[in-house]
Design a protein that fits this description.
280 residues, Diaminopimelate Epimerase, Chain A, domain 1, single chain, alpha+beta
């Protein structure tokens, strides 16, 4: 009988399966099949993604993230916070650590019951993109926060079309060939925004998206002049789960730096899979 230990974690409603590969390397083909099989909510464990913790030469560990469709993502903000929480609990008594992702090195801190990570610098910002999507003309902004995000400002977040419009933008030729995640953002006044995200690879709405929250905050600085201060501040992000994420930033001239994402995260349970009973 072949047993596979796994952990289930959640960060603000964004949920993940995590497997420990620090001692035994797992092949990409196996990890892709594992993600497709066990992220399925009806016949598997159920998750928005699979986190894999591997050895790293110049950091505490390396994090890989696989989407439910088996594709590997470069970065996942809430997945990174869950990975950091797991490592803090299971492998380290420290309150500060560093880990590798395909998007770059991530720094993580444990702040009481919240996990804070330092994001890679936002890149490739493009404002005011006009798109024909789902038989309508849509104005979108774009930024890469480790993965690509198209951000659409709306006046009522509840009326955002997370099916037709989001899917049309996700696959729009402007973002080909990789496609993009799609965030709808409503400015709630001051330094508060509400965000709903259609995630690439999940191919649907999730209850929270870390990189999407950061992308929406970054765009809101430009679009709504949101933020507590001109050069240093915080934007609070209300996500679909009802929880609040906080994005901290510093601005030097037109460049954003020291961008941090902070929010709650929890280790829900751990278990064992009898892989001999499942064909993966």
């Amino acid at each position: 009988m072949s047993l596979r230990n796994f952990y289930k974690l959640s960060a603000s409603g964004n949920d993940f399966i995590l497997i420990d590969s620090l001692r035994t390397a797992l092949t990409p083909a196996y990890l892709r099949r594992f993600a497709v099989r066990y992220c399925e909510r009806k016949t598997g464990i159920g998750a928005d993604g699979l986190l894999v913790i591997e050895k790293a030469r110049k950091a505490d560990f390396r994090m890989r993230i696989f989407n439910p469709d088996g594709t590997e993502a470069g970065m996942c903000g809430n997945g990174a916070r869950c990975s950091a929480l797991w490592f803090f609990i299971k492998k380290s008594g420290k309150r500060l650590l560093h880990f590798e992702t395909k998007a770059g090195m991530i720094e993580a801190q444990r702040v009481k019951d919240r996990i804070r990570i330092k994001m890679t610098p936002p890149a490739n910002m493009e404002m005011g993109i006009m798109l024909d999507a789902a038989a309508e003309r849509v104005r979108a902004d774009f930024v890469n926060t480790g993965v690509p995000h198209a951000v659409i400002a709306v006046s009522d977040i509840e009326k955002a079309d997370l099916v037709k419009t989001a899917r049309a933008i996700r696959y729009h030729k402007h973002f080909a060939p990789a496609g993009t995640n799609v965030d709808f953002v409503q400015h709630l006044g001051g330094n508060r925004i509400a965000v709903r995200t259609y995630e690439r690879g999940v191919e649907g709405e999730t209850l929270a998206c870390g990189t999407g929250s950061v992308a929406s905050a970054v765009i809101s600085l430009e679009r709504f002049s949101a933020g507590a201060a001109k050069n240093k501040g915080r934007i609070d992000v209300l996500v679909r789960s009802g929880e609040r994420l906080s994005v901290y930033f510093e601005r030097e001239k037109a460049v954003l730096k020291n961008v941090w994402l902070e929010g709650g995260a929890s280790l829900i349970f751990q278990g064992e899979l009898n892989e001999s009973t499942r064909v993966i």
